[in-house]
Amino acid sequence: MPDLLSIVAPFLNALIIALIARKALGVPVGWPRSIAMGLFTGASIVWAVIYVSELTGIYVDGRANAPLGVIFAVATLITAWVIVLGLIALVLLELFIPTGTLPSPLALLRGWNARRKRARRYTQVIRIAAKHGLSGYLGGRRKAREGQSAIARSLRAALNEGGVTFVKLGQMLSTRRDLIPEVFADQLATLQTRAGPEPWPQIEQAIEEELGRPLGEVFRSVDPDPLASASVAQVHAAELLDGTPVVLKVQRPGARKQVTSDVEIIIRLARWLERATPWGRSLRVTRLAEGFAASLHEELDYTVELDNLRTIAATMDGGVSVPTAHDLHSTGRLLVMDRLEGTPVGDAGALLAALPAATRTDLAERLLGEVLRQLVRTGVFHADLHPGNILITPDGGLGLLDFGSVGRLDQPTRNALGMLLLAIDNNDAIVATDSLIEMLDRPDGLVERDLERDLGQLMVRYRVGFGRGGSSGMFAALFKLIHAYGFAVPPQIAGAFRALAALDGTLALVSPDLDVVGAVRRQGREMMREATEPQAVRADLESRLAAYLPLLQRLPRRINKLTEDLEQGRISINIRPLADDRDRSFLTGLVHQVVIAILAATATLGAIVLMVADAGPTVAPGVRLFALVGSALLLVGFVLALRSLALVFHRR
Questions:
Q1: Within a 10 A sphere around the Cβ of 192, how many other Cβ atoms?
Q2: Bigger pLDDT: 499 or 114?
Q3: Which residues does 326 contact at the CB level (< 8 Å), separation at least 6?
Q4: When you count CB atoms within 10 A of the terminal residue's CB, does the N or C end of the chain come out lower?
């Protein structure tokens, strides 16, 4: 039993000291460091009491040389000072390594395997960056002496070698020409996520796991050879039991796990780059990485794509076809849809070449009109319109595939975009400027007159249109202008720009002679004409009037009461500057800080005066009463000062 007590007692003492330390500092210091401080302090107290007692002469040769009360007071004071030294250590730890910065011991044990795998992946990523000559740029140590083109090519090669997550990151960055130089955007736009097919037995097992039953109970047949294969999923043709032709989009086994691991690494790297490099801070790469992670997780959840497909299908007007999904057989990693026959635009060169030029122009204008209608009227749009996601159907129509990336625009943004299209058609730089400011985040120090002048020159330059070159040039010039004036592009607007950028390349394949600027003017004019027809305006006014009707009914009575109160002098203004709880909390905390600081300074000054005074009674050989009281007062001052510092560091 004594052996057990001798083992448990130090830990009980450490726990008590840790509780005292946390109460004294007034902040939630981590328990592991508090208990470690308690163990060290508890082991040091006995040695410190004996050493100081012998040094002051109140304990000589194993015998007490002072009254018991004095010995107790000195021992208590020494114990308190040792604890204060431990508090100083805790405050320094909170300053340099705040609580929560390091994982707890339990978390270290639980996450050891994941941390080891992440470290191995970190090493692979750094090795790939070093292989392509990019390691120096990550730390901000090297300058772009060899030119941005070479760096952009190296970055594209490194991202391509990094795997699907890094490829998708590069594709996302290629659409943010407001953030990265154009040479980088051009290189990153060439990244592809194609991959060799997964062996059929593994895909078959993955499908059956998602269905929860054998394939034969749901499908009459499934083609083991995929129609398409990417690094995250692959698509197989199949037939339901009733003979309906469908396609299965199945996620590769292990794809979600790999992407999740890589996304975590990307976010950690982004945080480090934002701290370590000027360009990381200027681009706010952490925010970019978190937005990319959110969108990628949505792409990995096929229930989100299922909802996107239903939403897009509900807003189509019949000009473009979309497949019908089978909700009963679809899950988070398996999507079952009716098969939409056709040839992707990227593979339809021979088919398009056989069509008359007028037919190709009609197809391109129909596709452009549908996309603009989604952007301006419905607010739900397909955000990944590359040539592989658009089909030419056997009847000469158009079809859309892959709804993993869908954007949404609110009503004010759609109105601003529509007004921008109308302003381009009317060559109205004033309205175009107002529309851009309404759509985008207004930069500080914007000179509206300069923006209006530059927009006017841009519209005059491309007023007539110059075929494909002129069309592409106008959109590129508009984007450069937005970037030059420092506009921050919200994610939903960036998604719309990405859709238009991808659409521009697809339209070039469908109809190389299409004047996109002219087509946009015509389509935008028709859409805004529909929105401003008397019936549409009347319906809009009626809906708004219905919302304001209760207010209008009460308005005369309120005006009458206001005039009566004004006439009789009953109007008063009551200002409560501290009505908000946050304001009161801030002011209270500030007052507490000031009071604690004043008390700490007063106690410290008083302690110094008492300790240096030669007067006063002697309570033991070499120990004056004033010095003893001064030491206690200095202890109080130190504790108050440490509490004040701990509160400051905790709020930071």
A1: 12
A2: 499
A3: 240, 246, 336, 337, 338
A4: N
Q: How many residues does the chain have?
A: 652
Helix, strand, coil percent content, the chain, rounded in steps of 5: 65, 10, 25
SS3 12: helix
**292-341, pLDDT tens digit by residue?**
888 788 888 888 888 888 888 888 776 788 888 888 889 889 999 998 88
Q: Which residue, among 122, 128, 94, 121, has the nearest Cα to 22 in the 3D structure?
A: 94
pLDDT in tens, 189-214: 777 666 678 888 899 999 999 988 88
Contact 292, 166 (CB under 8 A): no
- Report the C-alpha gap between 264 and 286 in whole angstroms: 12
Scanning 568-616, the segments in alpha helix (DSSP H) are: 581-612
Report the distance separating Cα 532 and Cα 376, nearest Å.
13
**Contact (CB, 8 A) for 502 and 384:** yes
The sign one gets for the Cα dihedral 391, 394, 396, 397 is negative
3-state secondary structure of 230: strand
Residue 420, burial from CB neighbour count under 10 angstroms (0-12, 13-18, 19+): buried
Residue 64: what are its φ and ψ, rounded to 5°? -70, 135
For residue 305, give Cα distances in angstroms to 254, 295, 310, 396, 406: 19, 12, 9, 26, 8
Most confident by average pLDDT, 106-110, 147-151, 178-182, 368-372: 368-372
Task: Name residues whose C-beta falls within 8 Å of residue 622's C-beta, 6 or more positions apart in sequence.
Answer: 56, 57, 58
Return the higher-pLDDT residue of 172 and 256: 256
The Cα–Cα gap between 320 and 305 comes to 18
* Residue spans per domain, the chain: 112-193+259-294, 354-561, 586-651
User: Does the pLDDT of residue 177 top 50, yes or no?
Assistant: yes
Residue 405's Cβ-count burial label (10 Å; 0-12, 13-18, 19+) is: buried
- Contact present, 486 and 371 (Cβ < 8 Å): no
Contact between 247 and 227 under an 8 Å Cβ cutoff? The reply is yes
pTM for the complete prediction?
Answer: 0.62
Q: Closest Cα to residue 192, out of 173, 164, 216, 211? A: 164
Label residues 481-493 b or e (16+ Cβ within 10 Å = b): bbbebebebeebb
Q: How far is CA 133 from CA 154, 205, 278, 280, 347, in A?
A: 7, 41, 19, 18, 36
Residue with the bigger pLDDT between 513 and 529: it is 513
HSE-up of 291 (CA within 13 Å, CB side)? 13
CA-CA-CA-CA torsion for 370, 372, 374, 378, nearest 10 degrees?
A: -120
398 or 84, which is more confident? 398
10 Å CB burial of residue 400 (0-12, 13-18, 19+) is: buried
Residue pair 468/348 in contact by the 8 Å Cβ criterion? no
- Tokens representing 577 are 């500057």
Q: What residues contact residue 346 under an 8 Å CB cut-off, 6+ apart?
A: 386, 387, 388, 509
10 Å Cβ neighbour count for 187?
23
Q: What are phi and psi of 390, to 5 degrees?
A: -125, 125
Q: Are 318 and 395 in contact (CB under 8 A)?
A: no
